[in-house]
Amino acid sequence: MTHHLLSCQHKATVMLKRITYISLILLLFSSCEDKKTQTKPQAVAHKSEVRVPDFNADSAYQYVKKQLDFGPRVPGGEAHARCVEYFIDFFNDKADTVYVQDFRTRLYNGKGIDGKNIIASFNPEAKKRILLAAHYDSRPFADHDPDENNWNTPIDGANDGASGVGVLMEIARVLNSNPINTGIDIILFDLEDYGAPAYENVMTNDDWALGSQYWSKNPHVYNYRAYFGLLLDMVGASNPKFPKEYYSQQFAPSLSNDVWRMARELGYSDYFTNEIGHPINDDHIYVNVIAKIPMIDIIHLENNEESSFYPYWHTMKDNIEQIDPNTLGMVGDVVLNVIYRN
Prior knowledge:
By secondary structure, the protein is an alpha/beta fold. Helix content is 33%, strand content 15%. A hairpin with a 5-residue loop joins strand 2 (97-106) and strand 3 (112-122).
């Protein structure tokens, strides 16, 4: 779903979501200008005396599979609508308050489309809040599939979307059984992955992450603030690579470094690597720049010339076969430790 800034050596025909250098400068300038009004996110406290509940990786896997059972969750389609109802029922059972944020926006081609962001709040009265997010829509184009005949076919989006949502659903289940004083808001963003297909050879920027753009301008609660945010994207494949995403390190370096330190303490340093990854134009950009909430992106990134993403990104093979419960468990463990030990 997410897409990154390609280097000049990358093939011109590989059209990814990206932020141009000019856009990056503007974004970083905007961020710097607003630092005076932001609350600096503190490092994640390592309170060893706090009991952190276990994360059930098998449960998270079943939540991923359930989403895929509906079919591709392309906005405007029946599978998308049925999945939305499933999410609403699920979070109504687990959270204190559930918001469904209806919005209308425009796609890359100028066509109007309706979307729904889903927000599940725990401890809604707490002033100290942590934001957890992922996108739940799946891409309508398998535009990086090796078979051109599949380029206009919707994908399952198992890793690209459903994996992050599955982790957050299991976290919601854990929070329901193991309450904490901190306020937690889980946001499932819609219309993240409906940017222009690669074969149209159109440079796009803000045509991706439409749900997070809308929420960042129109939060579900007036004057909403959060201590910090974590975005989960493509967090389910075997043998993942989670470097520190470039923009995350620019916008919230203390938070980024401390989350990776937490992962190292938990024994995941082979996967949460202490290196800077590619810059990715994802939902966290708009949460940082527009909503002024420090947010980092935990995302599987590889280092090759064709794409920064895992091999089945935006292909027909991004299906349940690519999901490894061990990876879901690792990411879920890190996130639970962050929110319970903070």
